[in-house]
Amino acid sequence: MSISNRELSELIMLIHEGDSSAFVRLIRLTSAEIKKFSSAFNVDEQTAAEVYQDTLISIWKHAGTFDPKKQRALPWLITVMRSRALDRRRINERNLFRSGLQDHLLPVDAQDDYLEQLATKEKSEFLWNSVELVSSRKRDSLLLHFKHGLTSFEIANRQGVPQSTIKSHIKRGLNELRGILREHEFF
Fold first, then answer.
1. Of 94, 90, 181, 92, which is closest to residue 134 (Cα–Cα)?
2. Does domain 107-183 have CATH number 1.10.10.10?
3. Which CATH number among 2.30.30.100, 1.10.1740.10, 3.40.50.620, 1.10.287.3510 corresponds to the domain 5-90?
4. Cα–Cα distance, 157 to 161 (Å, whole number)
5. Which of 5, 55, 65, 150 could bridge across to 154 with cysteines, CB 3.0–4.6 Å?
6. Domain boundaries, the chain
7. What is the pLDDT of residue 99?
8. What pLDDT shows up at residue 116?
9. What does the alpha-carbon distance between residue 48 and residue 111 come to, in Å, rounded to a whole number?
């Protein structure tokens, strides 16, 4: 990259003021770096491209949070990208978990035989009973997140705790649930 920290910082400050030409210039100057880091965080090219787009949107929206006295510009941009990459990973994991739950919770098509319907119902009941075995704080966070579709931010506001606490509860709750399901040879 052939731009100084001072120049890059000035561009970010101009973006905060709504200067779209500064935004275009920032993209031209930093896109290779941001794309390189985005690719490193993501398994496939499509997800990396989505993270890159999310990063650009975040830079535009949150340029005012950048403080050139406290941080250097390029590391701030990479931090924004990293946050978007982690958000995307969490969304993908949540969707995968939900689809896994739906595979066991959705009713079987009418043409399927009775035994298959019974097996699916038993798996569904076992899965939700297993969620009940997860320790209370983690269980509550899991249910609010996966069953009711609340974000960790919404759960944190509801419970009056930091968002990072809720994220930890969800992650640890999933690990605990996986252990319970493996112990009972669910998968």
1. 181
2. yes
3. 1.10.1740.10
4. 7
5. 150
6. 5-90, 107-183
7. 59
8. 54
9. 41
Q: Which two tokens stand for residue 28?
A: 């031209």
**Spatial contact of 88 and 48, defined as CB atoms under 8 Å apart:** no
Tell me how far apart the alpha carbons of residues 109 and 95 are, in angstroms, rounded to a whole number.
22
d(CA 182, CA 178): 6
Residue 44: the pLDDT is 73
Task: State the amino acid at position 176 in one-letter form.
Answer: E
CB 145 within 8 A of CB 139: no
CA-CA distance, 154 to 175, in Å (whole number)? Answer: 22
Q: Residue 175: what pLDDT?
A: 86
Find, among 84, 95, 97, 72, the residue nearest to 42 by Cα.
Answer: 84
| Model pLDDT, residue 111 | 41
CA-to-CA distance for 142 and 148, rounded, in angstroms?
9
Amino acid (1-letter code) at residue 152: S
The predicted pLDDT at position 110 comes to: 42
pLDDT along the chain (187 residues), means of 10: 83 94 91 78 75 90 92 88 83 66 46 49 68 85 81 88 91 85 68
User: Using alpha carbons only, what angle is made at residue 112 by residues 108 and 114, rounded to the nearest 5 degrees?
Assistant: 90
Predicted local confidence at residue 165, as pLDDT? 93
Q: Report the pLDDT value the prediction gives residue 59, as an integer from 0 to 100.
A: 93
